[in-house]
Amino acid sequence: MNMELIRRLEPITEEEKLILSGAKTINKDIYTTSKEFTVDSAKMLENGKLIDIRTHTRFLPFPPHKHNYIEIIYMCSGQTTHIINGSTKIVLKQGDLLFFNQHSYHEIEAANKEDIGINFIILPEFFDEVLPMVNKGNILSNFIVDTLRKNNSQASYLHFKVADILPIQNLVENLIWALLNKQYNDKHINQTTMGLLFMHLVGRTDRIERTDPEQQINAVIMKVLRYIEENYKEAALTELANVMNLSISNLSKIIKNSTGYTFKELLQNKRFQKAVHLLSTTTLPVTDIIYRVGYDNTSYFHRMFREKYHMSPKEYRSRNHA
Hints:
Distance between the termini: 43 Å
Low-confidence stretches: none
Largest sheet: 5 strands, mixed
Strand order of the largest sheet: 1-3-8-5-6
Strand content: 15-25%
Structural class: alpha+beta
């Protein structure tokens, strides 16, 4: 990491000075007003802000807690050990990214002075502006964000081991720099930088650490969604099941349980997203568009299109063409 940023992030904070002076536990009043240890965005963010950063508190274990916001942890140097849902242990090393949704419980073992971690504090609505920048209709991006925003009883997180991916490291450092320096037009800059970061991360789902069954399922789903994104014209469940060494029935069940859609529905959604994009931005004949997105039965396409959008492709183009 850039040494100038390290110099700005490594100084002992006022909270850490109290710990080094003899405090035995984390002062929860800094983080919350509730009896349950839920770190409150109102304590962490200035009024009106959707995103900010703070360095992770060192020298004491951070007790089990959750947040009412999305948290991304980035290790600038050293490492930290995280225990998720009381059982899953993750060692976050320099250059790693750890995404937590706002309902995940986790605790952190005591860090040393050289273990410098950055906590990104992000309200969910921040991503409402990020997703359109990533790629309208990119179901893989949607899945990642939905994983972070969903409310369930299981700890939902994503651990990206991307220390050697230079573009990702550069983008994270750019985001840290922008948040530290609070420059003009920083909201748009931060959202654009996060959008670019997501564009790189959706292409590196092979770098997600699979340390528990939930993460293994997430990895399977991301492979499925990436396959559809890249092969929507000719995608086939049979081929995908063979490539992933899973039975068709088992893969179908995983897809349905994790996304709420069947493989056929996901594929059809992607094809129609591509079709409406072409209708809105090109003058290609409708028949050509139908073939380009993977259909050879024009009557079927027209029937399904009308069912989905309540108008014909021609009508859609006349209303939405740029």
